[in-house]
């Protein structure tokens, strides 16, 4: 039995030496299954029809690169392509520590797993599979969320950071906003603001170490097509008409006139009753004239005549009483 096993082993070795293709094919097949080329474009995690349409809207921005920085860090972002300062082609969002002169950097989003959501006004782009946190977020992977909002008034895109929410147990993310007209649909060329929905219990942070929480103290935006800065959110100032301003001024002047005049007549001239009103005779004449005009227009002057007639009769009666008393 030992000799038979030895002979079988010799035959197998001789066959392997004479035909080495069997061993080479098996090894190449295993290596091909284990290694996967890095993504060079956005690979959707759930390639639905809706996400495909959103991906088509990003075609005008594909390959464009943007930067944002504060005192401690600088961020490099690219739309569905390799970011600036990235070492591998699938690294689409990079965070660089300024104090280390670029020696320390972290990938906060890759092209291998991308989520797209959106409406007619904005597209939410999420890069996943970033480098893991050292201490924060339960040592989970970093993620980058970019809200690309439609703003037809922007000639150059504006890229800003909203916040970093790293006080969770998982799904922590760096949240940014990119205002641009390139994301607008043809039927939606109106200016829109940033999305109002935000993850709950978020805290802003951009710190010396990427695992601590601290709000960014300075903001500056730059990109391949942008050299301007912006603040969030944009506000529209309401303007009053000329007539409204004139009416408000007249009401204010009349209020000051009556208040100050009444105080003067009461405490300086010791006036009482209706006489406390400043220029009471003038305002009384205006009131009587308005009443007479109203009677003439609406009641043809009948009621006013009757009142005057009654007053004349009362005057005659009072004269008769005086004669009787004499």
UniProtKB/TrEMBL annotation:
Coarse class of the protein's main subcellular location? membrane
Which InterPro entries does the record associate with it? Man-6-P_rcpt, Man-6-P_rcpt_cation_dep, Man6P_isomerase_rcpt-bd_dom_sf, MRH_dom
Instruction: Check the UniProt entry and state the signal peptide residues, or none.
Output: 1-18
GO BP: any one term: protein targeting to lysosome
Residue intervals passing through the bilayer: 240-260
In this chain, the stretch annotated as Disordered covers: 22-46, 190-234
- Recorded superkingdom: Eukaryota
Question: Where does the record place a coiled coil?
Answer: none
Regions of compositional bias (Low complexity) in chain numbering: 22-35, 190-210, 218-231
Where do the MRH domain residues begin and end?
Answer: 40-186
Location in or out of the cell: Endomembrane system
Alphabetic keyword roster: Disulfide bond, Glycoprotein, Membrane, Receptor, Signal, Transmembrane, Transmembrane helix, Transport
Q: Does the keyword Metal-binding apply?
A: no
The record's section on SUPFAM superfamilies has: Mannose 6-phosphate receptor domain (SSF50911)
Task: Write the protein's name.
Answer: Cation-dependent mannose-6-phosphate receptor
Source organism? Brachionus plicatilis
């Amino acid at each position: 039995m030992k000799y038979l096993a030895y002979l079988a082993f010799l035959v197998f070795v001789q066959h392997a030496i004479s035909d080495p293709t069997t061993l080479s094919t098996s090894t190449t097949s295993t290596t091909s299954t284990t290694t996967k080329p890095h993504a060079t474009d956005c690979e959707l995690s759930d390639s639905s029809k809706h996400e495909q349409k959103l991906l088509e809207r990003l075609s005008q921005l594909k390959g464009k690169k943007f930067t944002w920085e504060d005192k401690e860090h600088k961020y490099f972002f690219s739309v569905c392509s390799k970011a600036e300062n990235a070492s591998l082609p699938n690294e689409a969002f990079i965070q660089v520590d300024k104090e280390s002169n670029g020696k320390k950097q972290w990938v906060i989003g890759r092209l291998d797993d991308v989520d797209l959501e959106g409406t007619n006004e904005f597209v939410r782009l999420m890069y996943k599979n970033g480098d893991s946190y050292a201490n924060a977020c339960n040592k989970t992977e970093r993620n980058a969320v970019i809200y690309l909002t439609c703003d037809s008034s922007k000639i150059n895109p504006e890229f800003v950071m909203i916040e970093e929410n790293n006080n969770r147990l998982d799904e922590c993310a760096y949240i940014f906003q990119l205002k641009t007209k390139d994301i607008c649909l043809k039927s939606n060329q109106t200016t829109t603001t940033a999305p109002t929905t935000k993850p709950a219990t978020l805290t802003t942070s951009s710190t010396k170490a990427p695992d601590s929480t601290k709000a960014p103290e300075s903001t500056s935006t730059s990109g391949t097509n942008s050299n301007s800065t912006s603040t969030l959110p944009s506000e529209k100032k309401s303007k009053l008409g000329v007539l409204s301003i004139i009416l408000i001024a007249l009401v204010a002047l009349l209020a000051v006139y009556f208040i100050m005049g009444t105080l003067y007549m009461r405490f300086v001239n010791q006036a009482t009753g209706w006489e406390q009103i400043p220029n009471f005779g003038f305002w009384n004449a205006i009131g009587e004239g308005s009443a007479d005009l109203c009677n003439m227009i609406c009641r043809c002057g009948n009621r006013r005549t009757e009142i005057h007639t009654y007053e004349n009769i009362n005057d005659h009666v009072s004269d008769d009483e005086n004669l009787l008393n004499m």
